[in-house]
Amino acid sequence: MSLSQRPRRNRKSETVRSFHRETWLSPQHLMSPLFIHDASTDEDIVSMPGCKRLSPESVLREIEASLKVGIESFVFFPATPEALKTSEGEESFNANGLVQQTLRSVKQRFPEATLVTDVALDPYSSDGHDGIVAPDGTILNDETVAVLCKQAVSQAEAGADIIAPSDMMDGRIGAIRQSLDEAGFSNVSILSYTAKYASAFYGPFRDALDSAPKSGDKKTYQMDPANAREALRELQLDEEEGADMVMVKPAGAYLDVISLLRENTALPVAAYQVSGEYAMLKAACQNGWLSEEKVVPESLMAIRRAGADIILTYFAKQMATWMKDGTVHCG
Ligand code: PBG
């Protein structure tokens, strides 16, 4: 054939390919979500092979090991005993609650780590919802926001560097910003779950925390998976209300939304590769149907290519370990 263009010439060797590689990934882009519980031993999470509910001591060990491979930010999710769950989730702002205690012990031991906290009531709610449930089943917005503000301030007091509201109540970013500022925490950042979808991919996470809704679903507050334009509306509100960073969740099935936010904001964009995405990849790899050290980097690179600056992923430590020992090269 007489071709003037042969794109394959630009793919002929690793060196030539690396000349024009557009996307790169390094441990600094990864944030590690950790499940914690108040018990002396760790507990496996069946639907998330390789992830555990960590004891307070194991959390420190996990963070130490992660820091060694370059993972520097962590977000904590507490499994709360049923006895501490209430309809208004008061345990969420207990100064001696599990998250608050964990923040203090991690900060003291590893001051260099960046600690992120999730703001929502579901781990503490006897109804398993992110907000307060009225007798008729409605999720109360403004009453919930008042509790979320107390939760955020209590996390900041315990040492959180970044507060990440995942509840999807209206007006919570502005209200939390104001509460943090009034309490003297103008330096604490807000990473908003801006476009958080009502997704079935959260199933294993709800197993991990035993936090599934007792009735109904989350469709009156989380976004409809059919929608992208609505993400722009949430983005605009979060920016006006003072969010420092915005997030899309889940990640893999919502790459178009990541790219949409990337094109429409100057703020850093985060994406959350959620529990169901982890479980799918892990299950296929454990069966030998996919190769873990190939498919995990590809899944993360795709999320970066779509426009995410930061990725929350349960593969964070594993991925950073592979990059460090040379198993995986990411640009
Ligand atoms: C709680 C919250 C959820 C996740 C993060 N924060 C679950 C939910 O909204 O039901 C899911 C994370 C994951 O699936 O990995 N508001």
- Count of domain modules: 1
Provide the gyration radius in Å. 20 Å
- Summing up helix and strand content along with how strands pair, one would put the structural category as alpha/beta
E-strand count:
12
Sheet of most strands:
8 strands, parallel, barrel
Task: Sketch the topology as an H/E string, one letter per element.
Answer: HEEEHEHEEEHEHEHHEHEHHEH
Shape: globular
What is the CATH domain class? Answer: Alpha Beta
Query: Which CATH architecture is right?
Result: Alpha-Beta Barrel
| CATH fold annotation | TIM Barrel
The first-to-last residue Cα distance is 33 Å
Tell me which ligands are bound. ligand PBG
Word description of this protein:
The protein is α/β, with parallel strands linked by helices and 331 residues long. The protein has a single domain, classed as TIM Barrel, CATH 3.20.20. It is 38% helix and 16% strand. Strands 1-4-5-8-9-10-11-12 form an eight-stranded parallel beta barrel, surrounded by nine helices. Strands 6-7 form a two-stranded antiparallel ribbon. Strand 6 and strand 7 form a beta hairpin. The radius of gyration is 20 Å and the shape is globular. The mean pLDDT is 97. The protein binds ligand PBG.
